[in-house]
Structure formats: structure tokens, C-alpha cells
Amino acid sequence: MKDALQMDLKADVQSLLGRLGVEARILEAGDMASFSPVTGQQIASLAQDDAEATRAAIARAAAAFRTWRNVPAPGRGELVRLLGEELRAAKDDLGRLVSIEAGKSPSEGAGEVQEMIDICDFAVGLSRQLYGLTIATERPGHRMMETWHPLGVVGVISAFNFPVAVWSWNAALALVCGNPVVWKPSEKTPLTALACQAILDRALALFGDAPDSLSQVVIGGRETGEALVDDPRVALVSATGSTRMGRQVGPRVAARFGRSILELGGNNAGIVCPSADLDMALRAIAFAAMGTAGQRCTTMRRLFVHDSLYDQLVPGLIKAYGSVPVGNPLTTQALVGPLVDRQAFEGMQAAIEAAKAEGGVVHGGTRVTDAGPEAAYYVTPALIEMPAQVGPVLEETFAPILYVMRYSDLDDVIEQHNAVGAGLSSSIFTTDLRESELFLSAAGSDCGIANVNIGTSGAEIGGAFGGEKETGGGRESGSDAWKAYMRRATNTINYSRELPLAQGVVFDI
Ligand code: UN1
């Protein structure tokens, strides 16, 4: 039974890649092993791009920039419109490949591709809206304005958990803004990246006259990433991953005066207030904390419940944790799929042990051995009642663990809410206007995302995505996040016959 499952998966990958336009020979082209968390089996061994190959890709991208920057932005938008169309056509296959490579449920795999389509639509509109301001000038006969120009090569470093959507947030904006892209996907999810490249290649063929190497994928680990980070020809490095990774990438890019967008860890919390709609809160918390097996950067990891309803809400949550279906996302209706690998499982177990040592009462968090082969890591999600916000509660563990704590005073709990390193996403559950407005105010949540009566995860692409503090401060996706992908020039034009100087300075010669 187990063997049959493994064989099926490999065949499945091959036919999916074939339909998506990736040549089968790449599956056995090198020594970088790629696994599916669904079965733990190796599904490919790919060739890697070392530092030299990465630098060659950057050089090609730099050449492409010289042409692409001169294509009018609405024309660049046409390429992204075609990409969106190709993604629509490939949605089922790419979604399934995401499920195989990242272990997501079919609905979440498809949802991730939908997120790509959405950002393409957004970027197409944006291609006619890269607005600069006209600014009042103090000098007569002058006009002052700002112009947004393409920036240069954009390097994208992405994580396994959103293997394709995060690339599309960056690529759709970068391309519309006039920039080539060099993408280093996670070593855990190279196949979905190669599939995206094939999809984009089809859009490029339909587009016709785009420069070569406008968007490239480089496969590899640390060496590949470092080549991208350190190369002065890469104007912007957009990196998604752990805070540990960001601590290295940020200073290295800054040291060469490059620009970076850092989208790092989250330790996202929810606060359930006395007036909350408990039924809705329970469902929102369940998705935010258990969805994607706790492997979103936006996953809810901490929950503060008001004393007055703790005994109403928490037993219901514990019941939901005990009954949520855990299993193979491809063959069952499971809502919670596998952890990405053994390391993730060990990290989760270590956090659970640390929580116990701090007085935590643990519900769930054990391995489900009959959900898949030995090499796959399925767990029941863990809800841990904590006496205080200490030990592992202060850290992001990339696994389905929800630490639950009591609170009695809203001001105090907002202090606690903000007393962690990360600052990505946050939620309050309340029907009291004063509570929700306080949470959204300057004295409220210190996160880049603050929600009311919605969980911490599942953001739409229209808003800027990212967070503060150890989350890195970067913003991707919607709103005016595009500005990070362009350089701004302030232009002052004198159409008079005089030369008045600013600030009333006189310099007559
Ligand atoms: C991530 O986990 O890196 O808001 C991105 C969300 C998704 C994106 C998550 N739209 O949960």
C-alpha cells in the first residue's frame, strides 16, 4: 500500500510537469534531492546553479533590463496579463503540484494559484497607474514633479510554504515596474518554481518581443542565495523566510547599498474579547492556527482569551483540535496535511517539551503514524494552555502549535501582544467598537497586519503585505508596495527666463 502510494506520486509529478511544460529530464539532472512531504519520498534530484552560474544569470538579467526599462509600462502590463491568463489555464495542475511539493490541501493549493492570478490582475491595472506627484514649487515659472523609473534586477528568495505565490507578488510587480527577475526558490520546492518559469515562458512567447532572460530561476542552496545577495547588479533583494535568514541577508545587501524587502517570521496573536461572537471566533482561530499545518508566516501562534469566556471558548477549541482530520491531502479530505520534513517535526516536539517545562498543558501535538509512510511527518495540531507568555511562546515555531493564555485587562493584553520580536499579523475578536478601534490605533497592535473578527492569515493581495520589527519591515503585494521596485526622481523644470534660486539664495555673477 505504502509503496503503491509512493510510485503513484512520482508518476503524478512527471505527468503534471509534462502538462505544465517542464522537461522530464530535469527530474534526474543533478544531486539536489527534492522530496514530497506528503509521502516523504524523493521526487527529483536536480542540477544546481552554483555562484558562477548565478552570476551569469544576473548578467543576462542586467542586459535584459536595458531593453525592458524602455518598454512603456502598459506594454509591460500586457506581459503580466498574459501571465495571468496562462496561470488560469494551469491552475489545476500547478495547484496540485503545490499540494505535492508543499503538502497543502487541494483547496489551499488552488488558493495559492488564485493568489497569483489576483496579483497579476492587480499589476495589470497598476501598469497604467505608476503615479508620481506634481508638487507646488516656491519658484515662479517652475514646475516640480516626481517620476518613477525602473530600478534594476530584482532578486527573489522565497520559502517552501508559499512556493509560488510569493514569487508572483514580486515578479508581477517587478515586471510591470520595468525590472527583470532572478528567482531562487526554496530548496524544498524547486519543481513548482520550474513550472512557474515554464508558464511565464509561454506568456513571453505570446508577448513576442520581450528581451531574453527577463525572468530566470536559479536552483540551489546557500551558495546560490549568497551570489544573489552580494551582487551589486541586483538592485533589490526580496527575501521571504526566517528571521535568522533575514538577519544575514539584510546587512549584506545594505553593506553594498542595495535595497531589500524582508518578509520574515511572525508570532501572530489573536485576542478574544468578552463581546466576541464566539462561534465565529472559533472557526476563524481554527483556520488561522491549524490551516496549512501551521506553516504560514501568518499562522496564529498565540491566543489571549478573556477570563470571562475562557471556559466557554477553550474547551470548544480543544474539541476542534481533537477532531480535525489530519492526513494525506491528496487522497483524503484532511484539513491538516503534513509538516514539511523531519526537522519541522523535531522543532515542534522541542517547543512542546519547552512549553511543558514552563507549566504548559498540552492537547494534541503527537505524530500520526498511519497517515503516511515512515518518512512523512503528520501530527495532530497542538493547543497548549500556558500560565504565562514565556519560553517558546516568545518564538516562532513553524508548526501547528497554538499557545492559549488568559487575560483580564485589554491595555495589559495589548502590551503582551506586542511584547514579542516579530510584528507580522494580529487579530482581535470583539463586537465592541471601543475595543476594536483601540486595537487598530497607534496604541494598539504593532503589526503590519491588524484584523478585526478575522484570523491572522489569509490576507488578500490588494493590501500591502509584511510586518514590523523582526518581521523585517518589508511590504509586498498590493497598495503602494510597488514603490520599492522603482526609483524615484524629483524633477524641477524652469520654463521662465529668470533663474530664481530656492530658499531666496542670491548668487549674482
Ligand atoms: C506566507 O506565509 O509567507 O496571508 C504568505 C496569508 C497568505 C500569504 C502568506 N495570503 O496567509
TrEMBL record:
For this protein, the record's Pfam families field holds:
Aldedh
**Gene3D superfamilies this protein is in?**
Aldehyde Dehydrogenase, Chain A, domain 1, Aldehyde Dehydrogenase, Chain A, domain 2
UniProt keyword NAD, yes or no: yes
**Active site located where?**
E263
The leader peptide range reads: none
Key words of the record: NAD, Oxidoreductase
* Coiled-coil spans in chain: none
Give the InterPro entries listed for this entry: Ald_DH/histidinol_DH (IPR016161), Ald_DH_C (IPR016163), Ald_DH_CS_GLU (IPR029510), Ald_DH_N (IPR016162), Aldehyde_DH_dom (IPR015590), ALDH7A1-like (IPR044638)
| KW Membrane (keyword) present | no
Q: Where is the Aldehyde dehydrogenase domain?
A: 31-488
In terms of domain of life, where is this protein from? Bacteria
Query: EC number(s) on record?
Result: 1.2.1.3
Assigned protein family:
Belongs to the aldehyde dehydrogenase family.
Q: How does it assemble?
A: Homotetramer.
What protein name is recorded for this chain? aldehyde dehydrogenase (NAD(+))
Q: In which organism is this protein found?
A: Paracoccus benzoatiresistens
